Amino acid sequence: MKVSARQVSALLERPGPKLRAALMYGPDQGLVRERADRMARAIVEDLTDPFRVSDLSAANIKDNPARFLDEAAALSMTNGARIVRVRGANEKQVPLFTALFETKQPLSLVIAEAGELRPRSPLRILFEECDHAVAIGCYLDDTSGIDDLIRDLCQTHNLTITPDARRYLVDNLGSDRLVSRSELDKLVLYLGQSRQVTESDVSAVVGDNGAATMHGFAVAVADGDHCQVTRALARLSLQGVTSVQALHGALHHLHRLHLIAIRVASGESVARAVNSLRPPVHFTARSAVQRQALAWSDIKLRRAMSTLLDAEIDCKSRGNLSTVIANMAFLRVANAAQRLKTRGLTH
Prior knowledge:
Radius of gyration: 25 Å
Shape: elongated
CATH class of the largest domain: Alpha Beta
Number of domains: 3
CATH topology of the largest domain: Rossmann fold
Strand order of the largest sheet: 2-3-4-1-5
Oligomer: single chain
CATH architecture of the largest domain: 3-Layer(aba) Sandwich
Number of helices: 17
């Protein structure tokens, strides 16, 4: 059966005696593994216990298909229930899972991990339509997912976190759950006995998973830093960010520069104009943003924003060329920024 997002946590903690199998699938393999581990620990505390945990790969099942059902039907040699873990579940195993669901005898809980499965996938449909099985999609983290991770971290380790530190983590943790967990684990080790998480703490620890943030990418575009733009685009792509989303990020940054330019034109200092932005500019980018606000004139910002808006429209009408269209737009804006720096323009 299908499982809604709000049902997932309770199901992972209490799988229930009638459940025969669970399928974790999706593009976020870190989240797939995390949820599979969580459900497994609800049955078996020690996942390395060979008497209560059977670990099968796709290759194991391919070489010996009968072993799959044998392991599911095996009785525990010690007290407590058994589980069977299947790594790399795929469409070729549909007949085996069908046989599993049709078996009448008591079986061990099977927890299967798969990659991304389309809605019409026979494996996914089989689990969704069986009353004694569940299919749980595991998708790349958005802002709310990262917020949940931070909240769990603070509750588990009895930590408090400043608003700036929370904002930094939301902006800099990527969408892959496994990598984000690793970054947060490093943060806990870094804190030691300290119970408060500050912005300086997180900026000192969180690494390359956040180096390609949308904000960092947008700042690089407006700064004309072609090398950083290229690196950031590659990382954003790996995190699942689309061309249209990248255009939105760059456009948002130019819009904020435009707001600063308007305030500076009315007599406000550039430092005060930058500090007045909400959400605030991260301290590591303030000098770059101030420099850009002075370099970009009102008319040039309007032209750059128009370039990105036109590219967004083209991307939506010609989706197969969206990457090329967006990259050409970023190149045009970055080239304009380079010319501003070369000429030393301030208006």
